[in-house]
Write a structure and sequence with these properties.
Blueprint: H1 3-24, H2 50-73, H3 83-96, H4 104-116, H5 153-166, H6 170-195, H7 201-209, H8 212-219, H9 224-241, H10 245-259, H11 267-274, H12 279-300, H13 306-310, H14 321-329, H15 335-360, H16 375-396, H17 406-411, H18 419-434, H19 445-481
Protein name: Integral membrane protein
Keywords: Membrane, Transmembrane, Transmembrane helix
Length: about 500
């Protein structure tokens, strides 16, 4: 093993170990009490203070960023024969550890419980259900106690299945959901290995499997986004098998399933349509997508997205857009007007950034599917377009949280190494650190002031700086691409391209 690879994996191991100390200890500021009294609430026989939890996670994320930076600059081989042991060990630990980084998994349990008992999670809030006395829904924490579900029909069905398994035992409900998330995490890796060649297999393990930030935020966080990205990539695998009607129909249905987990993943349908290969294929994709959505919404009704519509103008604390919103509170501009301005400005900026990312990156095998690549090239192109759109959204969205970046990291291994790798690494590190420890309760006043100060006063400016750096790097790369043939090789980090030869 090369020295760089050894250092990378030692740092990955250190980062994951620090994160697991938080995840396997007792209930703390990063993980709510799941009310079971089981050993599964904390396999390590101690409870960490909110200050220690915060410090450990900040150090773990910093170490992870260094480890990832080393791997981005030097190619790292795939896991090889160690794969079953690594995947099995990490997956088992992820299930045994109570989720960290937020209390969203308790929300999932509550919405599933409401649906399982015959309620409507899209209109009934956890605080209102069963008079507030239900053993599962009463565990939901602020600020989500009075909020109905924002998740789609399929996510809610799976959450209801977890509720059926766990019954009145919150830890069991969460455990059943964790199994789904870990299975989805493994499915993402399986899909990626179907879509990349052996030469680039190492990127799958560096960017997804052994990425401590993805593991902490997505898998240990037990977020629904891991399931959605697994469905999107499964759709890409289907397209990669054949561009014929049957697989196009299946791919459309799988994207509909992802949309029915979280509405924003409908962007994958647009990517599949833009990837090419004719009108008939597009019609089959739309037929598969529409059929699944019609079936699900005949059952649930169209009101499942009402909550998404109500929250469309929200602005989270750690984004640069928040600076504008706070400024409007002390100016003559109405806050509601500023929210509208931010929504429009963000949309326009996303389009511009997506164009820059599109011009500065390319999928494995080239921008256009060749005859030799066949359907595989089509699948890679669809994944690339999805990455372009979701990366621009993640970087510039007014309301954004760490797990919103997971879709980009799930697709990044299918793209040639470029400056986008480093941009997304900086973005995920900043946003993950900003939301440590991850809950709004369970902290001492000093820790709350420190972490909230980082989130509100520091991170927006750091992200603003990242925007400037990102645009500069993407413009520079785009300028170089104008002088370099697309067939000369990667034009970002890794292997530099050869200069184009002049005709004599």
């Amino acid at each position: 093993m090369q020295q760089g690879t050894r250092r990378h994996r030692l740092l990955v191991g250190l980062s994951v170990a620090l994160i697991l100390v938080v995840a396997l200890s007792g209930p703390n500021a990063a993980k709510p009490d799941l009310r079971s009294g089981w050993p599964l609430d904390g396999l390590l026989p101690f409870t960490l203070s909110s200050a220690l939890v915060t410090g450990l996670l900040w150090v773990a994320y910093a170490v992870a960023a260094v480890a990832m930076a080393l791997a981005l600059w030097r190619p790292v081989p795939a896991l090889g024969r160690r794969t079953p042991w690594v995947l099995g060990g990490l997956g088992l630990l992820a299930v045994l550890a109570a989720p960290i980084g937020s209390a969203d998994h308790v929300n999932y349990a509550a919405y599933g419980r409401i649906l399982w008992l015959g309620g409507d999670p899209w209109t009934a809030s956890p605080a209102d259900f069963a008079g507030g006395s239900d053993p599962i829904t009463s565990a939901v924490e602020e600020p989500w106690r009075t909020e109905p579900s924002v998740y789609g029909p399929l996510a809610s069905l799976i959450q209801a299945g977890a509720a059926a398994i766990g019954g009145t035992h919150l830890r069991l409900v969460v455990l059943a959901w964790q199994v789904v998330v870990v299975a989805a995490w493994l499915l993402v890796r399986w899909c990626l290995r179907r879509l990349v060649d052996e030469e680039n297999a190492g990127r799958v393990d560096v960017l997804w499997t052994l990425n401590p930030l993805v593991f902490a935020v997505g898998v240990l966080g037990a977020h629904v986004d891991v399931l959605a990205i697994a469905l999107v990539l499964t759709a890409c695998v289907g397209v990669g098998r054949s561009a014929g009607p049957a697989w196009s129909l299946v791919a459309g249905g799988l994207v509909a399933a992802a949309t029915s987990v979280k509405f924003t993943y409908a962007v994958a349908l647009l990517a599949l349509l833009l990837a090419g290969r004719g009108v008939r294929r597009a019609l089959w994709l739309l037929a598969g997508w529409g059929a699944v959505l019609v079936v699900l919404h005949l059952w649930t009704g169209g009101h499942v997205y009402d909550q998404v519509g109500r929250s469309r103008r929200a602005v989270s604390l750690a984004t640069p857009w928040r600076l504008l919103l706070e400024w409007s509170r002390t100016s003559s501009v109405e806050v509601s007007t500023m929210r509208s301005i931010i929504t429009v400005a963000a949309g326009v900026a996303m389009i511009g950034l997506a164009v820059l990312i599109w011009r500065a990156t390319r999928p494995l095998g080239g921008r256009e599917p060749s005859e030799r690549q066949g359907s595989l090239g089509l699948a890679r192109r669809a994944a690339w377009i999805t990455l372009v759109l979701t990366a621009a959204y993640g970087l510039l969205a007014p309301y954004t949280l760490p797990w919103y970046d997971l879709v980009a990291w799930g697709l990044l291994p299918l793209v040639v190494p470029s400056v986008l790798d480093g941009i997304l690494l900086a973005r995920l590190t900043l946003i993950a650190a900003a939301y440590v420890p991850g809950r709004v309760i369970g902290m001492t006043p000093g820790v709350e002031a420190l972490t909230l100060g980082l989130r509100r006063e520091v991170t927006p400016w750091l992200q603003l700086g990242l925007w400037v750096v990102a645009v500069t790097l993407l413009l520079h790369t785009t300028h170089r691409r104008g002088r370099i043939s697309d067939d000369d090789g990667p034009d970002g980090w890794g292997h530099p391209p050869a200069p184009r030869r002049r005709a004599r």
